[in-house]
Fold this sequence. Notes:
The complex is a heterodimer of chains A (365) and B (609). Chain A is α/β, with parallel strands linked by helices and 365 residues long. Chain A contains 15 helices and 10 strands. Chain A has an 8-stranded mixed β-sheet with strand order 3-2-1-4-5-6-9-10, with helices on both faces. In chain A, helix 5 links the parallel strand 1 and strand 2. In chain A, helix 5 runs parallel beside helix 6. Chain B has 609 residues and is an alpha/beta fold. Chain B folds into 3 domains: 211 residues, Rossmann fold (3-Layer(aba) Sandwich), CATH 3.40.50.720; 182 residues, Arc Repressor Mutant, subunit A (Orthogonal Bundle), CATH 1.10.10; 144 residues, Roll (Structural Genomics Hypothetical 15.5 Kd Protein In mrcA-pckA Intergenic Region, Chain A), CATH 3.10.290.20. In chain B, the strands form 3 sheets. Chain B has an 8-stranded mixed β-sheet with strand order 3-2-1-4-5-6-8-9, with helices on both faces. Chains A and B meet through helix 2, helix 3, helix 4, helix 5 and helix 15 of A and helix 1, helix 2, helix 13 and helix 17 of B.
Amino acid sequence: VSSTMARADDVNVANGVNAADTISDTITQNEAAVYDRQIRLWGIEAQNKLRHSRVLLVGLKGLGAEIAKNLVLCGLNSMQIIDSELVTEEDTLSNFFLAKDSVGKERAASSLAGVQELNPLVKLSCAKTIEEVDLSSFSLVVLADQPYNLVKEINEKCRAAGVRFIGSSVYGWVGYSFFDFNGHEFIMKKELPIALETLEDGDEKKKTEDEEKETTVEDEEDKWETKTLSFPSYEEALNVDWQVKKLARKARGLLPSSYFPVRALLRAEESSLLTGNEERDVARITELWVGELERCNQNEDNQTILPEQFDYLFGPQLSATCAILGGFIGQESIKALTGGKQPFRNLMIYSALDSTTRVCDFPPK
Amino acid sequence: SVNMGWREKEAAKLAGKKVLMVGAGGIGCELLKNIVLAGFRDIHVIDLDTIDVSNLNRQFLFRREHVGKSKAEVSTAAGLRMAPDAETKIVYDHESIFSEKFNYEFFKQFVFVLNALDNKAARNHVNRMCMATRVPLIDGGTSGYYGQVHSMIRGKTECYECDPKDENKKSFPGCTIRNTPSEHIHCTVWSKHVFNQLFGELDIDDDVSPDMDDEEAKEKLTVVEAMETGDDDEAVANGKTTPESGKSTPEENGKKEEKPGNTRAMAEESGYDAELIFNKLFVDDIHYLLKMANLWKERRPPVPVPFAELATENVGLCESTAAKLDPQQRVWTPAENGAEFRKAVETLRERKAASADGILTWDKDDDAAMRFVAACANIRAGIFHIAPKSLFEIKSMAGNIIPAIATTNAIVAGIMTIDALKIVAGHEDKLASAILMLNPNYRGQVVVPSPPEKPNPACFTCSAKREVSLRLNVEKMTVGTLRDKILMAALGVGAPDVMEATTSKVIVSSEEGETDGLMGDTLAAHGLSMGGRLIVEDFDSGAEMRVVVLQAASFDEHSFVVVSDVSEEGEEQMMMKQEMEEVVIGKKRKTMDENEMPAKKARIEGEEE
């Protein structure tokens, strides 16, 4: 497994940014004690990569709070949080860092102390807007509850800079997360070996080497290899032409019911169609939902999430949905930062309405 | 105005509902946060544990300054701070869930119980309480990246004990541990036994020395004897390989000791001299092993290593990246193992001498005890040509440490909360078991649901007609032991009323004082024999159970086995099995597992860290 860090970090060091963040070459006794149970899972080299990682988190509603918790606990070098929105009463029902008297104050600033308490070793800071930060200085950029157009824009910028990217939102009881680790290394399962007869001399030698490896290395390790992966962009993933002949048949199996309300909400964000009045918004989303089904040639009869339930897409974020989605986002973030095994490709949708967790690979192959 | 939409609908369902959460650790912290935020207003938390620094990577309600404090207490305080309003009530008990305080009346208060536990014994217990009181039970568990949630409802779904999952802790055959280790774990297990032998409670059965009665070696022992009486040709003809007997063994020295010396006796006589103990374990005893030539026909024979000859370098091992990051991850050289061994023995002997009862208990977090085991394990590994491991790795194995992270706990707790919401909404039919996978399956599911199994009609915890077979010795076991150890402790019968099935004679009455005089009688005295039947009723829950007795003449007055399957064929098979077992018992083969439980005592399993 390669122990070199991904490009964004190297750029960072070269630029002298965060030069003051000199990280010691050994894990301190304190870190070893606190992180013991996780080091026993992902190993100390992975832990070392985490403690060199810098994450940008945009959005600190319930989902953002869960992501912040999960990443700060695991021992990052630093996290910068952006959320200048003002705290509402709704927020206090899902962002557990907020005190009751924080209503009306800025979300990120009001949460910072609570987040810091989780792990004094992580350097935390706030920024006012995305414009003022240098995306390329981060190991990972995570957007939580940001509108479609912003997610698309930042995804494009991160791709250009080679920065790992996650975009996610929770709408009431339902949420999604999009993963883009284009150009980064992961450990992937090896392709199945070719039949012996087809091997040529060169391969013969390689086969012997593999066999030798087999006797000294545990069986498990032999099945894996390090690979640089390519991921599609946010725009590509969410704008598949499902009417194309090749996809028409497969579409039903590939598109979970939870996709349609989520995509409808994203379309509403795209064109700023929501009013803030729940009744009207439920009607809007219902129209858009019907449109999505048509766009994908799918049938209302096959859906397990129906317009009667669309009021559950508004109002406060359900804590459990934030916890589940935030848990997976935390897990995949750690995988991405440490170059771990088999990252999720590339769109996860969770719905507490029909209890489904689906990972979709869009656009489909 | 603030839009609370669905929340108002849901709030009505939660109103007045009391909830119990057992366990306030990894899953518990996440779960408490979820249910508080979801709007549950009356919560009871029970946990007997205190906070450890290694909890802080995931049990996020706890801070550094809380180390040593009660998890129940600290999590409750944190939960109250997160509560949506002052209406939320959270109370806690820093106690064991097994406490009598938490009886049926207690459990009946709750609309459901959340299990956030880390051991089977407690899970079984809560399961029984919930099944008896018909309170839905939501059980979650995690291990590394994996997790599971099962919600259980009496009469509708499987309960936690319907399917006897035999997840016994891995146990290894005695001779593998004592004679022929082939993996580091065998050496680690052996080393823990050595610790107990030397510093623990006195046990005349020395189970760390070579087992000279090893079946595999038996035939050839006669050849060894033949060789010693001068029949070399016969030995060669029989293909006996000569061990590395360049070194002289006690036997060749003419002492004619057939068995290795008792480790504890030797240690005490020598005043716990580290080097002498070392040479006993790693030289003398190895020579005894080498005498059992048959063991080494197809295995590399062990090579004894005297203390003075321990190598100062690790052959073929270079310092890993891991070791550079943390010294605990470095693999000690053989010489370092020796030094650690000596240092640990010296520390432990002093501690033993200073202690009131002269008994030390092994604990993975006790530095000297842990280093002792690590050093021993590595030295033994070297002798048997097994690669050594770092202190860090050995601690995982010896301490049965389950790796744990925040994200898996967060996901599982989230799923448990959704189940909780289903139950209060009256959607019990929508409950499904959930298994968290490492990667999505072919359908893209990473949490795989499956409809809950139907209850097992023969389950001795939740079925109306429970039928249980008990293997025991009616000539020796007393009525009192039947009541206390079997019915109450093992089978969870709160207040047993027991009748002999054919005569309807009452042997045990739940009414105080009624059957006290019978407690010392043997079961045989009340007419029980092979195939005898009892009817057991639980006065507390009203549950009834039929018991079939399978006589086992070789059992003593405490031993018993609970068998849950009672078909006609089943009985026959069981009788055959029983006969076989009696033959095996005669051979004194002891299975060495982590808990050193005699094979025949009731199953109470635990997988704690």
